[in-house]
Amino acid sequence: MSTGNARAGGTDPRIVALGGGHGLYATLTAMRYLSSDITAVVTVADDGGSSGRLRAELGLIPPGDLRMALAALMCAPKALEDFQTAGDPETRRRHELWAEVLQHRFGGRGALAGHPIGNLMLAGLTEVLGDTVAALDELRSMFGIKGHVLPMSTVPLDIEADVSGLEADPRISREIRGQVAVATTPGKVRRVRLIPEDPPACESAVEAIDSADLVMLGPGSWFSSVIPHVLVPDQLKALQRTSARKILVVNLAPEPGETPGFSVERHLHVLHAHADTFRVDHVLVDEASVPAGREREHLERAAGLFGAELVVGDVAVPGRQVHDPAKVAAVVNELCEGEPNRYSDRADA
Question: Which InterPro entries does the protein's record reference (predicted)?
Fold first, then answer.
């Protein structure tokens, strides 16, 4: 997939990015360097903050991560020629303004305090239209956004985790339910489940994965934004059968609350434990997070569990634990222009 040639020829590669929260926002920003034909598939288990309040009061799919994905698609990266708006400065200005409006949170101490405007718009449209996907499409059309934002499932989900370290006996695990509770409870997360256990996938998301040229998974909160994508049965089947190139982007550092003390290798092992039939072409890690030597050799074997090639590159913002969108885009573009890895040589590694 040569992204530069694709834009010149008038057809962008079809990219699907799976995740949630700030990790998905970063991936979408990176992929905007490569294409305007992007579909974001978003986790729907958030139960905290504005999303949790709207979910509890209205029974809706939590809107927060969906809103962030819309905002990410609305504005092209600063260093990129605005292929979405054909270089029209006024259109760019309006997109940037409305992206800021969608993200803006009300202040004060009243009932609206803490609610982002985009959450309320999406909740209101969902009530009027009776469907979250239709509401997302209406917002996309209203603002002229190229690309799509879709929920991972058509119903709000709960995350339940087995957490050890909460009892005197470290071998005993306790069940903790709810994304916020899982992220804030002391102890070590061993395994997560979705409730309901066999949630319905979003049909449009499955179709997007089936027809994609490239599928990106991660980075993000490993147990609440990344692993859930392989726990929706019909979506996992789509990930298994798609002919798209698949790239797993691993976090730059352990996340307090969910993965304290996790090595990069440990991230891969826990994902594999949740979906041992899941295969990807490449596992992308930052070179500073995995020193050369024995640790990197272990990581190569862990990548082999997915039939994947380990790709180590400079993909971080210097001095910060944040992915650099332009660097990620450059590495992904190079991988897509190279020889395909269909993971047959590594499946038994």
Answer: CofD, CofD-like_dom_sf, Gluconeogen_factor
Provide the CA 275 distance to its chain's centre, in angstroms. 17
* Distances from the Cα of 317 to the Cα of 41, 123, 184, 259, 324, angstroms: 25, 34, 27, 21, 5
At 341, list the tokens: 């890895």
For strand 173-177 and strand 158-164, is the pairing parallel, antiparallel, or unpaired?
A: antiparallel
Report the 10 Å Cβ neighbour count for 270: 18
Query: Which tokens sit at 2?
Result: 């040569």
Output the six-digit token pair for 285: 């890690």
Question: For the chain, what's the residue count?
Answer: 349
CA distances for 124 relative to 103, 112, 255, 276, angstroms:
16, 14, 33, 40
pLDDT digits 0-9 by tens, 265-281 = 999 999 999 999 999 99
| pLDDT, tens digit, 9 for 90 and up, residues 284-305 | 999 999 888 898 999 999 999 9
Burial class (CB in 10 A: 0-12, 13-18, 19+), 170: exposed
DSSP code for 201: B
Q: Is 265 helix (H, G, I), strand (E, B) or coil?
A: helix
Dihedrals phi, psi of 113, to nearest 5 degrees: -55, 130
How large is the average pLDDT for residues 29-43? Answer: 95
Which residue, 268, 186, 197, 184, is CA-closest to 226? Answer: 268
Q: Tokens for 250?
A: 């691993």
Short-list 258, 205, 213, 251, CA closest to 232? 205
Which distant-in-sequence residues (6+ apart) come within 8 Å of 345 by Cβ?
307
- Residue type present at position 306: F
